[in-house]
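Q: Given only this backbone (424 positions), what sequence would you predict?
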């Protein structure tokens, strides 16, 4: 009898081990067969997120820490700068994944947070190669989230070293966006740095936060590190650099942000400015995250909140009937395609703003409800999130089959905040 119990326990442990190790190979049966809905209830919102993340994780390779392809355009080649496993694409994914992991753990599902912990340990808590570029240290948010759970000081060592170096030797480049080119005998091309077989184009202003996306990648990490460590230097550095760029890219007439200086004079066919949905989405979501960690008594907090409120009020008027924003916010007809990544980032900002007590719930809940319905509609029966504009920097075409890793993070961000808003 005793021997039978040992055999039974051994088999049970082996089965559990196999199930845990195959999270990247097989999504749970429930996520494949259960339908999802846009109902504003905790079970429905949770199931929608679970469906999307479980499908996405079937494409994850634990050996390389990379998502791998089923489509030519969905994931980047191993020589593409954006494919770096500690780069911005994966960082944006993990920002949302961390919040989902914490929520899932409360429901008894610990495999997601364990996966993130394993990824971070395999990363050795390191970053992509460019020290000053926010895209390459945005992954620090994952390490901060894990530190708050496990309190392992090792998780923050590389982040502190990098930020100390930046503070002691701050970049002073101009915020004007221009890629460095070099002339050859027969052609002109962008100069690039080579790291681990990847080519990273040179844009000097990216040593600072000169583009809209950086507001999501950079300052939330600096300010969260300040909150965690109590070191105010991180906060003050971030505050100074944030306003340098915000004052530069902010359009006071339309209460929106240009993506970068290349768009100051560009206009759509209808005469409106070129305001990229995902670009302004990065800003909106970045501001929401900044406000989560910014001290309530900080001298500039009213400025952050005022900018946030004005931008969110303006964006509400450009939401389309299906709940999604179009790639070009002020000229939806110019690129008349649904776009889920920008929509998810903007939706997160609305929901987080309400949950933080900054935005008016009665005013913006209908916007969120319509946006969430549109996002859930963009999820295919398999769990694949579609209608994601490919990696770029301006409004472009999109199809229902297009997807990208960073959009999953945005979907999880919006879902976890909507889950908090749900009353049942």
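A: Predicted residues:
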């Amino acid at each position: 009898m005793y021997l039978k119990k040992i055999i039974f326990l051994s088999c049970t442990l082996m089965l559990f081990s196999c199930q845990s190790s195959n999270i990247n190979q097989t999504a749970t049966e429930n996520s494949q067969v259960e339908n999802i809905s846009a109902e504003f209830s905790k079970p429905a919102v949770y199931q929608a997120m679970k469906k999307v993340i479980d499908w996405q994780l079937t494409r994850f390779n634990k050996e390389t820490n990379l998502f791998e392809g089923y489509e030519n355009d969905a994931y980047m080649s191993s020589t593409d700068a954006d494919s770096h496993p500690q780069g911005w694409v994966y960082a944006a994914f993990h920002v949302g994944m961390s919040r989902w992991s914490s929520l899932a753990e409360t429901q008894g599902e610990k495999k997601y947070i364990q996966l993130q912990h394993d990824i971070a340990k395999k990363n050795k808590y390191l970053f992509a190669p460019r020290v000053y570029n926010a895209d390459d240290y945005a992954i620090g948010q994952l390490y901060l989230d894990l530190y708050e759970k496990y309190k392992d000081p090792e998780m923050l060592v590389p982040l502190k070293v990098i930020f100390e170096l930046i503070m002691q030797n701050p970049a002073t480049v101009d915020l004007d966006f221009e890629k460095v080119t070099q002339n050859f005998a027969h052609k002109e091309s962008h100069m690039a740095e080579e790291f681990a077989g990847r080519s990273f184009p040179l844009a000097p202003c990216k040593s600072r936060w000169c583009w809209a996306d950086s507001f999501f990648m950079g300052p939330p990490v600096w300010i969260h590190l300040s909150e965690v460590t109590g070191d105010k230097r991180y906060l003050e550095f971030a505050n100074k650099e944030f306003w340098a760029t915000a004052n530069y890219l902010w359009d006071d007439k339309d209460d929106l942000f240009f993506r970068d200086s290349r768009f100051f004079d560009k206009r759509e066919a209808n005469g409106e400015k070129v305001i990229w949905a995902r670009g302004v989405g990065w800003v909106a979501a970045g501001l929401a995250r900044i406000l989560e960690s910014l001290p309530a008594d900080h001298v500039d907090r009213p400025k952050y909140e005022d900018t946030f409120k004005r931008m969110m009020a303006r964006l509400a008027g450009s939401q389309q009937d299906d709940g999604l924003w179009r790639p070009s916010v002020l000229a939806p007809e110019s690129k008349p395609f649904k776009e889920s990544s920008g929509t998810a980032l903007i939706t997160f900002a609305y929901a987080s703003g309400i949950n933080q007590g900054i935005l008016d719930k009665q005013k913006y809940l209908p916007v969120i409800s319509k946006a969430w319905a549109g996002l859930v509609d963009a999820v295919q029966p398999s769990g694949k999130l579609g209608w994601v504009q490919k990696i770029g920097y301006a409004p472009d075409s999109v199809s229902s089959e297009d997807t990208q890793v960073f959009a999953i993070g945005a979907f999880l961000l919006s879902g976890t905040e909507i889950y908090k808003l749900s009353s049942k």
